[in-house]
Specification:
The chain has about 190 residues and is an alpha+beta fold. Helix content is about 55%, strand content about 10%. The protein is built from 6 helices and 4 strands; from the N terminus they run ββββαααααα. A 4-stranded antiparallel beta sheet has the order 1-2-3-4, with no helix packed on it. A hairpin with a 2-residue loop joins strand 3 and strand 4.
């Protein structure tokens, strides 16, 4: 639910015409503001990217949101930032974070599922091609939009899902957990 303050850029109170409407909305839940001009949100500037996964680490989320803010103005820039975001994500997942290709290879050795590896490599290769001349058209809005989706999916698979399963698993009775541990030792 939003509380709204409205005016027009000629200084008159908004009279029902959308041609010169300026609105500020304040969320009653989080108390953050949005700024709208003629029914288009200009602040915060999230582009068309989906909201970041709530479990996305803070440093990764900051880069994700920066990429979202420039997605419409510079799709290439957004693709490059998303590549940086997965480099930070690999570091959050326990890798050194110095060489993204090596980090992905290490995660594969640790059992990273192929679908997640492919998602990371799509982000890596597309982000690299955004900075260095390549064959991928990072000016295509659909290409860049898919990168945001992939990053959310990687976070979902690598962070959200394990947290959810672990939380439920740990509610099992202690004797059942001990039995499972015993089974898995031998």
């Amino acid at each position: 639910m939003q509380n709204w303050w409205e005016t027009s850029w000629n200084g008159n109170r908004y009279q029902g015409t959308a041609s010169n409407q300026i609105k500020v909305g304040t969320c009653q839940h989080c108390e953050k503001n949005t700024v709208w001009i003629v029914n288009k949100m200009y602040y915060p500037d999230n582009g068309n990217a989906p909201f970041p996964n709530p479990d996305m680490p803070i440093a990764v989320k900051a880069i994700y949101q920066e990429a979202a803010s420039i997605q419409q103005k510079s799709p290439r820039g957004a693709a490059a930032l998303l590549r940086l975001a997965i480099q930070l994500l690999c570091k959050e997942l326990g890798e050194p974070g110095k060489n993204i290709n090596s980090d992905i290879a290490n995660l594969v050795k640790k059992g990273l599922p192929p679908i997640v590896q492919q998602s990371l490599d799509i982000l890596r290769v597309t982000g690299n091609d955004a900075v260095h001349p390549g064959q991928i058209d990072t000016e295509d809005p659909d290409v860049v939009a898919n990168l945001f989706k992939l990053l959310n999916l990687v976070v979902d698979y690598m962070i959200t899902l394990p947290n959810q399963v672990s939380g439920i698993y740990n509610t099992l009775p202690t004797d059942k957990l001990d039995g499972i541990k015993g089974r898995d030792k031998g």
